[in-house]
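Module 6 notes. Inverse folding takes a fixed backbone as the condition and produces residue identities as the prediction. Think of it as a translation problem where the source language is geometry and the target language is the twenty amino acids. Below is one complete input and output pair. Work through it position by position during the lab.
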């Protein structure tokens, strides 16, 4: 069977099988989106999602081995544009401070726009991290952290800025991106009704306090150099 995102095969039978598999996968993702949007992560079973999609639990597990993989696949399309944005910023030689500001604002908007899905994803990440007792493994195709690598765009930009000398080399890009994303996910889950620009400002202040502390010296009259609307 070709990958689900590959072009449809030319053979009529293979094409029919591909179409059926694609529709089933889409139905499962739609059912998961609705279920995670209305119920807490711990109370959702794969059987519930399968029922919502109108398929058997065995079929659901054939497409997605676990809830962790399913929510990772569900969150992944939200993250991909941010990765493209980061690579474009590097290719266009944008100042890394500006690119990082845009990235944090965009990520903040995303997490606050999808609070229930973000809460489910964060729960999946916590559970899976405890299960494997270690960082993401790029070869693990059911790890939600690998399927939807939220810190990656920030990591890429910070690493590039450290290479060009635009930001400090310590802490490492991995540590900075993980700290910012973990803090964002926690705040978006625990403070869903807080204006997202407050979280964005706080994250930028923390990040550049590590990477460009000189920017905090230019605080302006209110002492808030990153006060902004996201």
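Target side of the pair, the amino acids:
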């Amino acid at each position: 069977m070709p990958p689900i995102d590959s072009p449809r095969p030319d053979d009529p039978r293979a094409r029919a099988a591909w179409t059926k598999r694609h529709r089933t996968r889409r139905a499962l993702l739609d059912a998961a989106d609705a279920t995670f949007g209305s119920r807490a992560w711990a109370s959702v079973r794969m059987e519930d999602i399968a029922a919502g999609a109108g398929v058997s639990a065995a079929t659901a597990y054939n497409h997605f081995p676990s809830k962790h993989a399913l929510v990772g696949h569900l969150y992944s399309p939200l993250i991909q544009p941010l990765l493209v944005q980061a690579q474009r910023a590097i290719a266009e030689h944008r100042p890394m401070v500006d690119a990082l500001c845009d990235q944090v604002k965009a990520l903040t908007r995303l997490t606050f726009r999808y609070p229930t899905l973000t809460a489910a994803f964060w729960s999946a990440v916590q559970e899976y991290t405890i299960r494997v007792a270690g960082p993401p493994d790029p070869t693990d195709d059911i790890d939600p952290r690998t399927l939807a690598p939220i810190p990656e765009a920030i990591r890429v930009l910070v690493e590039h800025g450290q290479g060009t000398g635009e930001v400090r080399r310590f802490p490492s890009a991995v540590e900075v991106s993980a700290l910012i994303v973990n803090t964002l996910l926690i705040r978006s889950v625990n403070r869903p009704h807080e204006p997202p620009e407050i979280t964005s400002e706080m994250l930028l202040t923390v990040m550049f306090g590590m990477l460009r502390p000189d920017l905090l010296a230019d605080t302006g009259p209110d002492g808030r150099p990153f006060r902004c609307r996201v």
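Reference fact for the lab report: The longest helix spans residues 12-38.
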